Amino acid sequence: MFKEITLMSRLEAEEELAYLAHRMAELDIAYHQQDSPLVSDAEYDKLKRRNELLEEAFPDLIRPDSPSRKVGAAAADGFGQVTHSVPMLSLGNIFTEEDVYDFMDKIHRFLGIPENEEIEMVAEPKIDGLSFSAVYRQGKFVQAATRGDGAIGEDITLNIKTIRELPLELKGDDLFSSSVPDFIDIRGEVYMARKDFFDLNEKQQRDNKKVFANPRNAAAGSLRQLNPQITAGRNLSLFAYAVGRVNGATWTTHSGFLEQLKKWGFPVNPEIRICHNTQDMIAFFRDMTQKRSSLPYDIDGVVYKVNRLDLQERLGFIARSPRWAIAHKFPAEQAMTRLNKIRIQVGRTGALTPVADLEPINVGGVMVAHATLHNADEIARKDIREGDTVIIQRAGDVIPQIVRVVLEKRPLDSVPFTFPSICPVCGSHALREGDDAVTYCMGGLICPAQNKERLKHFVSKEGLDIEGLGQKNVELFYELGWIKTPVDIFKLEQNHGLEILNLEGWGQKSAVNLFDAIRSVQKGVPLDRFIYALGIREVGETTAKLLANRFQTFEEFYSMTKSVDAISVLTQIEGIGAVMATEIIDFFAEERNRTLLDELLQNLTVLPDEGEVKQQTPLTGKTVVFTGTLQKMTRSEAKARATGAGAKVSSSVSSKTDFVVAGESAGSKLQNAQELGIRILSEEDFLSLLDVAKKTGYDNGKIERG
Ligand code: IVH
Questions:
Q1: Which CATH number applies to 623-695?
Q2: Which of 672, 661, 656, 655 lies closest to 628 in space, CA to CA?
Q3: Which fold has domain 444-523?
């Protein structure tokens, strides 16, 4: 029934993989969520095997939603996965009125628009709920998802359908519904009104069920229910405020889009206001601060967005957030409590981090028992001591902080805190070097705390994400001496399979699931996750994604780190500075890391970055030099758009230069380029190349897929 794989073209393989992904997702939902399998187990296994064989033959066609990568995940939490039409990004945060002026200054400068010329902005309340994406085809609602990791979310189609405010069909403007696009992905926030939250908690309490800490948690807990009937019994609401992919947009401004949303029948926040200048924006923020407690729902700040979509497009994105929008957050909530103990944690990099153990207290709806103290300087500067009464604050999801000590309440026998000079875990020296504020344990590989944390990082959700090998089990296997280095994970079944089966609390099923999960990870780890999992200092999720995006394969990335111009190649990537670049290079220069890597690569397959095929553009991988004055955009915009389309920007012309973009009164660089026979582009040529780039997948810097 299946075609012989060796005879298949790429296109055929791609089509079949897409079919399998959809079919198996459908079978998974029927099996796991609806408890009504559509096919026999044998039939299911056959499809699974076929998918594996196809992926082996065409590894670069492995899909982000591939069934082979979903092993366990769909079963564990029961939600299908949905790849977003366009990534769901987040917003940068600002906290002060001065920051609002800075934000507008940057926008003016980036666009080269004089300070006194108006850039119209839209100001909106920032709803404290959880974001959703809802896809409509030919005006009919078809699917909804949570934000997930930004690239892939959880399928909440059935749950969101129970929210009465969600239109199941877009109302057309006229009889013929000509204003409804073929495809549109509408985004917004699902929230629980404060009254509904109190009612729900009352009921939960009566039924002896879990009460929720705040409306946001209640909304999340209600929407992410495997049984949509439970969602239906909760009162949820929503506001729409953004769009992903759309075919056939008829609007040119954000406010125009909001008007269209209303016509289609979506709830749009009534407080939204157009601002003509920074003063208007600040006035809106102050008004919302005043109104906050009387609104029927929680907001945690306001969002400012550039109104004109052509300007939004020119501004583009930095890493995960747009340059054309920002969140202005309300000041954090504070509370007073007692600091019982200062505890020192040793992280995977050996950093000694002091943590305050607090008398648990409710801060703005969330119980807080710990606060970060950052480092020795911070403790000394604020003179924080064990036994002190302290003011703590919590802003959004960040770890609570200590604002100050209430000196009047300090016990008479209190003594200043002395920061340890030896590692509390391994007893090695703990040192501060140069003007670094952080104290590091010098124990390196002999420090159990560092080793354990490195392993936890390696298998974490954002890293290899091995189902069944959570932080607790890593800790256990480490203590038992079964996993000492990451490679040991892949030998676990062989070396300690039987012992694991016999561990207390473990049965046949959980052990087999764990080994299956390990094997499935071995078959293919996405490049960005692998880079993140290595635990290179300074390299978090976003940087790992940037690197994966730029180098596409691990081999390419690895060999770059060994080249002489590694530093300049790395710092050319927007979002990567000299400190990060040095950490990356140092990591791979370390012999022990290289040995470990070689062993790891023998035990698992690192998948190439998925962007490659889709996002080849005429500028991908090309080195571009700008010279002279550009008319239609500023130099920084030009650079950002070139990098966004996959190019490298260099400041000097050499034989490695692919294009020189020459503006007015270009000088020696232009001459140089002519002598070297390098292709010279006018500003117009460059703009049309960007246009082509956009059509082939890149969109003005929207290279981030997660
Ligand atoms: S716009 C690309 N508008 O805030 C920008 N977001 O901190 C898309 N949020 O993930 C977001 N109210 O969940 C936008 N009026 C509003 C919002 C809003 C709440 C949430 C949203 C986003 C998060 C970023």
A1: 3.40.50.10190
A2: 661
A3: DNA polymerase; domain 1 (1.10.150)
Angle between helices 508-523 and 492-501 (to 10 degrees): 160
Q: What is the pLDDT of residues 289-342, one digit of tens each?
A: 999 988 999 999 999 999 999 999 999 998 779 999 999 998 877 889 999 999
209 is catalytic: no
Burial of 350 (0-12, 13-18, 19+ CB in 10 A): buried
Distance 531 CA to ligand 1 centre (A): 28
Between CA 301 and CA 289 the distance in angstroms is 8
Q: Is the CB of 186 under 6 A from ligand 1?
A: no
At 557-603, the pLDDT tens digits run 999 999 988 999 999 888 888 889 999 999 999 888 899 899 999 99
Determine whether the shortest distance from the Cβ of 91 to ligand 1 is under 6 A.
yes
Q: How far is CA 167 from CA 138, 144, 362, 545, in A?
A: 13, 12, 38, 35
Q: Is 528 in the pocket of ligand 1 (CB under 6 A)?
A: no
Instruction: Compute, in angstroms, the gap from residue 91 CA to the centroid of ligand 1.
Output: 7
Query: What's the gap in Å between 683 CA and the centre of ligand 1?
Result: 35
Is the CB of residue 322 below 6 angstroms from any atom belonging to ligand 1?
A: yes
Q: Give the pLDDT confidence of 106-131 residue by residue, as tens digits.
A: 999 999 999 999 999 999 999 999 99
Choose one of 149, 241, 292, 300 to mutate for the ligand 1 pocket test, by most ligand atoms within 8 angstroms of C-beta. 241
Best CA proximity match to 640, nearest among 415, 425, 323, 390: 323
At 662-706, the pLDDT tens digits run: 988 888 888 888 888 888 898 988 988 888 777 654 443 333 322
**Are 681 and 657 a contacting pair, CB within 8 Å?**
no
The active-site residue out of 3, 70, 106, 126 is 126
**Cβ atoms of 220 and 160 closer than 8 Å:** no
Is 526-607 CATH 1.10.150.20?
yes
Q: Is the CB of 93 under 6 A from ligand 1?
A: no
**φ and ψ of 363, to 5 deg:** -115, 110
CATH code: domain 333-442 is: 2.40.50.140
Q: Which three-class secondary structure state does DSSP give residue 649?
A: strand
- The protein residue whose alpha carbon is closest to atom 18 in ligand 1 is 126
State which fold the 81-329 domain adopts. D-amino Acid Aminotransferase; Chain A, domain 1 (3.30.470)
Taking CA atoms only, the protein residue closest to ligand 1 atom 23 is 90
Could you identify the atom of ligand 1 that is nearest to the CA of residue 128?
19
* 217 Cα to the center of ligand 1, angstroms: 17
Q: Is the CB of 122 under 6 A from ligand 1?
A: no
The answer to pTM > 0.90 is no
327 CB under 6 A from ligand 1?
yes
Tally of CB atoms within 10 A around 174: 7
pLDDT in the model for residue 128: 94
CATH of the domain spanning 5-69: 1.10.287.610
* DSSP per residue, 118-165: ---EEEEEEE-SEEEEEEEETTEEEEEEE-TTSSEEEB-HHHHTT-TT
| pLDDT per residue as tens digits for the range 22-42 | 888 887 766 555 546 677 666
